[in-house]
């Protein structure tokens, strides 16, 4: 897995994206280990072209259907993809349950600096919303961790206020 | 099921600990930069990959 190379490629091509899911939770401070990087992306034609240019060098293969080439036509035809690539497993999502499409997800993004790259990451509060609507076992486990992180941040913030 | 007041951080943390969350580890993570969090994650991921590979070799 090589998320820094992925982030650099997305930024170099000017892709509109937000890191979501388990990897966003990691950057927010969770101790969760995920095997893929999930991101939400904008579906306008310009962004589809930029996204394809960013991912093409990593030899993406559609996990569920390896015989179908991952190209611009495939991207136009379908909103969500699970890909195997040279930089690891990626999940491309046009819509996030509990939030909406890219425009709505981007409203809940915070910019992190990772290996010198600016990286839009879904906020902790929005991650909690998205995991609250999912019922998979791994989501329920991660939700407990995210709520604990939010509680710790709140305690730190409250402590800071009472120290002033 | 116990009702947790999500506006009360102490209740949330107590419930998380009961559910097996490493709250002390999360507290340490909050002190780390995103780069340090990524380093820690990549180490854990590499170790799990190594363990998965070792199990696969053992079973063949």
Please sum up the structure shown.
Chain A contains 7 helices and 9 strands. With 164 residues, chain A is α+β, with helices and mostly antiparallel strands.
Structure description:
Chain A has a single domain (3-163), classed as Beta Polymerase, domain 2 (2-Layer Sandwich). A five-stranded mixed β-sheet of chain A has the order 1-2-5-4-3. In chain A, α1 packs across α3, α2 (21-28) runs antiparallel to α6 (124-132) and α6 packs antiparallel against α7. Chain A is α+β, with helices and mostly antiparallel strands and 164 residues long. Chain A contains seven helices and nine strands; from the N terminus they run αβαβαβαββββαββαα. Helices cover 47% and strands 24% of the residues of chain A. Chain B has 60 residues and is mostly helical. Chain B has one domain. Chain B is 73% helix and 0% strand. Chain B contains three helices and no strands. Chain B has helices at residues 9-18, 23-30, 34-59. The longest helix of chain B is centred in the last third of the chain and has 26 residues, at 34-59. Chain B is flat and about 50 Å long. Classes of the chains: A alpha+beta (164), B mainly alpha (60). At the A-B interface, β8 and α7 of A face α1, α2 and α3 of B.
List keywords for this structure.
heterodimer; A: about 160 residues; alpha+beta; Beta Polymerase, domain 2; 5-stranded mixed beta sheet; two-stranded antiparallel ribbon; 7 helices; 9 strands; globular; B: about 60 residues; mainly alpha; 3 helices; about 75% helix; flat
């Amino acid at each position: 897995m090589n998320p820094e190379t992925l982030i650099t490629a997305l930024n170099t091509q000017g892709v509109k994206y937000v890191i979501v899911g388990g990897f966003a939770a990691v950057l927010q401070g969770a101790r969760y280990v995920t095997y893929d990087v999930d991101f939400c992306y904008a579906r306008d034609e310009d962004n589809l072209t930029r996204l394809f240019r960013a991912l093409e060098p990593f030899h993406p293969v559609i996990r569920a259907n390896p015989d179908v080439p991952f190209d611009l036509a495939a991207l136009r035809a379908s909103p969500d993809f699970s890909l195997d690539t040279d930089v690891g497993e990626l999940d491309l999502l046009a819509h996030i349950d509990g939030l909406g499409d890219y425009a709505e997800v981007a409203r809940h993004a915070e910019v992190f600096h990772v290996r010198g790259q600016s990286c839009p990451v879904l906020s902790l509060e929005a991650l909690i919303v998205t995991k609250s609507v999912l019922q998979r076992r791994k989501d329920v486990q991660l939700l407990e961790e995210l709520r604990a992180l939010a509680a710790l941040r709140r305690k730190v913030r409250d402590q800071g206020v009472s120290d002033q | 099921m116990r009702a947790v007041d999500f506006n009360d951080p102490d209740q949330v943390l107590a419930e998380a600990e009961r559910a097996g969350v490493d709250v002390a580890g999360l507290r340490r993570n909050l002190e780390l930069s995103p780069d340090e969090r990524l380093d820690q994650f990549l180490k854990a991921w590499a170790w799990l990959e190594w363990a998965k590979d070792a199990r696969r070799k053992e079973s063949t």
